[in-house]
Design goal:
2 helices
């Protein structure tokens, strides 16, 4: 499982902030992974074999190469798209953050850093993403 892995490398390809309503979108086997935090959501992520109900303060991981549908009445989220070496996963994984203030703050930081594109932003974004991974790993270990 992705959130139980503590050793892999990555390359961030984008960070985006979405605030949408009434979405019904099919995503075909993207070439990158997505890690997102939903500040507010009434969303379902569906694959052929899986269905994840996602609400406020949820973290989700969607692996590369997976066809899925996103159905949402409303959602505000920040997503980090990245390529990864050292881990493969075939399933969507999601959980409700136990400490959503910390996770939400880290996602805001990476979004701001990515959008400002100041000198060295790639390194700072990588550092923030490692913080996000560490926080998610810690929260999942507490389950």
């Amino acid at each position: 499982m992705f959130f139980e892995n503590d050793s892999f490398s990555f390359d961030i390809i984008g960070v985006m902030h979405l605030n949408q309503e009434n979405v019904n979108m099919f995503n075909s086997a993207r070439s990158f992974n997505a890690l997102s935090f939903r500040y507010h959501a009434d969303t379902v992520l569906k694959t052929e074999n899986q269905k994840c109900q996602i609400g406020d303060n949820y973290v989700s991981f969607v692996p590369a190469g997976l066809d899925y549908r996103r159905i949402s009445k409303s959602e505000e989220l920040i997503a980090v798209n990245f390529r990864m070496v050292g881990h493969t996963s075939g399933n969507i994984e999601c959980f409700e953050a136990k400490n959503p203030q910390t996770v939400g703050r880290l996602f805001r930081e990476i979004s701001e850093c990515w959008n400002k594109k100041e000198v060295g932003y790639q390194f700072r974004c990588a550092a923030i993403l490692y913080e996000i991974f560490a926080e998610c790993y810690r929260q999942k270990r507490e389950d």
